[in-house]
Amino acid sequence: MLLSIVWNPSPEIFSLGGFAVRWYGLFFALSFFLGYLIMLKFFSKEGVPVALLDELTTWMIIGTIVGARLGHVFFYEPSWYLAHPIKILEVWEGGLASHGAAVCIPLSVFIFSRMRGKPFLWFMDRVVITVALAGFMIRMGNLMNSEIYGLPTSLPWGFNFLRSSTPSDGLVPRHPTQIYEALSYLAIFFLLWWYYYKKDGKPALGMIFGMFMVLVFGVRFFIEFIKEPQVGFERGLPLNMGQMLSIPLIIAGITLIVLARKKPKEA
Q1: Cα of 226 vs its chain's centroid, Å
Q2: pTM (2 decimals)?
Q3: Is the Cβ–Cβ distance between 112 and 56 less than 8 Å?
Q4: 267 within some domain
Q5: Which of 58, 60, 95, 205 has its CA at a distance of 20 to 30 angstroms from the CA of residue 160?
């Protein structure tokens, strides 16, 4: 008999009338709350005004939601969303892409850094530590939604996702790739946190940002090999959309690390 774990939790924590509180939304909100507390420690350690953090948080929220949503819309299902444009606004229905956030978060931080006259890489070296933790939270939300799971497996920790959008998928044990990614991002969070304090809050500009890009999207690239395609057009491709989008981000991360090693440490 094939061993597996039957996974059938409700994606909703509770509902009142037509309003429902979902696990995904809770984890998403929690990622911003914990990220704010972590950034508060960084700002306090380095004597940066908290008011600056409040402004940065607003820009981060906008960049994350807009980027992740548009990333899913244009990278994965552009034709469907262009035919139903009002659906683009229905973020609560799901459909966020980390690669879209990977573009819009730096863009929003860059605009903010120019407005406040502080180095862009200084902000990003600290922001990405919290983003790694957010990645852990988001993948746990995906797990509660029974989505973004892996290919069939005979391993004893395979999950039968009974609430899958494709009912037949729940009959076969599959890799819980949400857990693989979540634990990887959590480990990366602790590594980047440790590196920040190892350098006493003064890492070379761009080093932590580069490490984040290489580690997070490197992990994503390899886990994609055992992940079920999110959309039909990915089937039969040598690399899926997630992998193709990860490659330039990994290269960008390597470039940042090389440049950071050539620069003197941040004063």
Answers
A1: 18
A2: 0.87
A3: yes
A4: no
A5: 95
